[in-house]
Every structure is written in structure tokens, then in C-alpha cells.
Amino acid sequence: MILAPHNEDEVMVWRVEVTDDSERVHACLSMLTNEEKLRAERRRAGLVRNQFVIARGALRTLLGDALDIDPRTVSIVTDEFGKPDTPPVNGRRVFFNVAHSRSSVLIAMGYRCPLGVDIEYIDQEKDLADIAESYFTANESSRISSTADPEQRARNFYRCWTQKEAVAKADGRGLSLSLGSFETPIDHAQNTPVKLGGEFGKTYYLSDLSLAEGVVGAVACESQDCRIRVLDLEWL
Which residue of 35, 103, 208, 225 shows the fewest CB atoms closer than 10 Å? Predict the structure, then answer.
């Protein structure tokens, strides 16, 4: 099974489900460095720990395939904002980003440009008005609060949140970038340009992801010439 993107303009978004299957957890754990194993041990046993182990094992599997090296030898480093990266190998550069919510992990990967991905489960019980007012633009907050149907209102909030997170992660600054400093479409995005202002202002191209009922996700790329594919990773 070929896991890496086939073409330079392709961005593959792999969906991984976290389970307590001991065989899968053990296989993923065997791919981790000693430092990663210590990080796993510091996490609460159960879903939280398994999420880290399986996500990192899956990431190493995908990067190893893309770079044509042993997954255990992949160097994963973080920049000043904490965004993970891997150095080029034999002239091959791979851009990637990871997101997780509950038992789901998304790993986006491509060759062309920096990218970001996010996923959220929709929580109908959470009070979203204060969060939207604090983190979104006035226009976004108003559009969300004025949505009459509660289910659609919640969906609009989480769609906006994942869109903003994906852009912020593609930019590299993550949550150190104010989510209220730029505006996303809220409505369905398909290669939709989003402009960041300020000194580091760039345009990112945003696409919503079709995942599952009650789940929303988005991916943002620095290049507008990226084709998005969503797949399930079944490798054990």
C-alpha cells in the first residue's frame, strides 16, 4: 500500500481512529524514540496516551514512506512556535500537520507548501456565544449568534473554529496568532482564499473536509494548486 502523496500537487489527509487495541498500540510504540516514549508515559493512561502513541506511530509510518526511509529514523523537530517539521532527506521535502479530537486523528501531508489541518467534534451542549465573541471577528460572531437553528449554529461555530485553526497552523504561529485577526468564510470552503494581515501577511487556501456526522474539519495550504484527498489509514 502506497501511503505517500503520488503527485507534487496532492495533499493527502489521513484519518486515524485511536483504539485500545494492544497490538496496534504496541506496534506504534515500537516506532517511537526514547524521548517520545517518555512523553507518552507522562500522559494519562487510556485514550490520551493511546492518542499520542498511535498518532506519532502513524505519522512516522507516513513520513517514512514519503521519504523512503525507516520510520524509526525520521527526525521530527519543532520550531519556535512548537510546529513539528522534518528536515529534507535526499532533497525531498515533506510538509505535514497533525490534529486530533476525541478518538480521531488527522494527518495532512504534501510536498508543495506549508499546510495546516484541524478537526473538531460538534458539542451541542457547550455555550459557544462567549467563545465566539472572544476569539472570532465581530462579523463572524454576529453571523453565528444570529443563526436561528441551534444545530446549525453549533455547526457554524465549529466550522469557523476548524477553518481558523487550519489557517493558523499552516501559517506556523498556531494560537499565538490571534484568531480574530483574520476572517474565514464559515460557509463551506473549497480552495477559498483567506488573507492574513500584518507584517507576515500571506494568503492561504482553505478547504472544508468531509469526515463524518457530527464532525467537522478543514485543511489550509499556502498554495492554491493543491488537490485534497481524505483517506482512512488502515495499516494494522
Answer: 35
